[in-house]
From TrEMBL:
Catalytic site: D82 (nucleophile)
GO cellular component: cytosol
Catalysed conversion reaction: uridine(13) in tRNA = pseudouridine(13) in tRNA
Protein name: tRNA pseudouridine synthase D
Coiled coil: none
GO MF, one example: tRNA pseudouridine(13) synthase activity
Gene responsible for this protein: truD
TRUD domain sequence ranges: 158-309
Length: 350
């Protein structure tokens, strides 16, 4: 089997020359997730907001199931969070007709129950409004002014909405597994693992399209035949002409150009956008056909990611603290890769 390697996806300002250490300590990478809805306070599903340190999300979900004496599938969460970090996230546990245990006895050096409530439905994947990040870069080497120029540009224009490198697994093993499923038609019985591998393949194809748009300078601009996505929504619409209204809405971040997460269904792109897409995906025809065969529905993802409330503070001559908000499904590592050169991204895999 030939190893699959990731290309160095294009940068909007060129590859950074400044280096820094990321996640030297778990506290250097802090995330707080915000739900997209307010739990009602009643219902058979207990909602726990938990702050965890250096703890895997899946592992904690299994511990919650064991603690509450329920089956693993009765525990859910809105999104995976990095292990080597301090993250505050929500879990739901279905306790229909059961007495809830004393959740505070879960507290330890690495786990703290922040609050609890109830809701009528389980917590589903992606049910987040956004994630708030506070990151500390250590041993920053390079010109401060250059780094701050990049930060100012990102705050004003956003970044390419790449899937983070952790999506592809350690040594890109998720892509190797996807190749076996999509081309060799290997059988993987574990549904969660299979879904993870197929998602990695779709993410890779999306990144390839986005990288070409970055190279062409159209990752944040419309091209003929583009598909536009409404900001903060999954709603999309095709365009054939780029008129003043489309330009105005792009400028004020009301809409963003989008690319597909490949699967079955109508491809709304046409003209130049479709031609570019077909050129890139022609090298991965086996994957495209396999994703359709697997029954995945074609979806759309914005090419542009707006970095909300980006702020930075120099804690010392070589330590920089960043704070910003990103919508659900976006990666802090896609912001960092435009700023500093580091190998920390693949050191700890979810």
């Amino acid at each position: 089997m030939i190893p699959i390697t990731l290309p160095d996806f294009a940068y909007i300002l060129g590859a950074p020359t400044i280096t820094a250490d990321v996640r030297t300590y778990p506290e250097d990478f802090q995330v707080v997730e915000t739900l997209s809805f307010e739990p009602t306070g009643t219902g058979e599903h207990v909602f726990l907001q938990i702050r965890k340190r250096d703890t895997n999300t899946d592992w904690l979900a299994r511990q919650l199931a064991q603690f509450a004496n329920v089956k693993p599938h009765e525990v859910s969460y809105a999104g995976l969070k990095d292990r080597h970090a301090v993250t505050t996230q929500w879990f739901s546990i279905q306790l229909a007709g059961k007495i809830a245990p004393d959740w505070q006895t879960l507290n330890s050096d690495t786990i703290q129950v922040v609050q609890q409530t109830r809701h009528s439905r389980k917590l589903r994947r992606g049910a987040l409004r956004d994630n708030q990040f506070i990151l500390c870069l250590r041993n920053v080497t390079g010109n401060h002014a250059t780094l701050e120029q990049r930060l100012t540009y990102l705050a004003q224009h956003g970044v390419p909405n790449y899937f983070g490198e952790q999506r592809f697994g350690h040594n890109h093993n998720n892509l190797q597994a996807a190749e076996q499923i999509l081309v060799a038609q290997a059988i993987i019985k574990d549904r969660h693992q299979r879904s993870l591998y197929l998602s990695a393949a779709r993410s890779f194809l999306f990144n390839r399209i986005l990288s070409e748009r970055v190279t062409q300078g159209s990752w944040n601009q419309a091209i003929n035949g583009d598909v536009m996505q409404l900001a903060g929504s999954h709603s999309v619409f095709p365009i054939t002409n780029i008129d003043d209204e489309i330009q105005r809405r792009l400028t004020c971040f009301d809409i963003h150009p989008a690319a597909p997460l490949w699967g079955k269904g109508e491809n709304l792109a046409s003209l130049d956008a479709l031609a570019l897409m077909q050129t890139i995906l022609s090298a991965h025809q086996g994957w495209c056909e396999g994703l359709i065969r697997e029954g995945l529905e074609l979806e759309w993802r914005s090419l542009r990611l707006i970095v909300e409330n980006l702020q930075w503070t120099w804690l010392s001559e070589t330590s920089l603290q960043l704070a910003f908000h990103l919508p659900a499904g976006a990666y802090a590592t896609t912001v960092l890769r435009e700023l500093v050169k580091t190998t920390e991204f693949t050191r700890h895999v979810m």
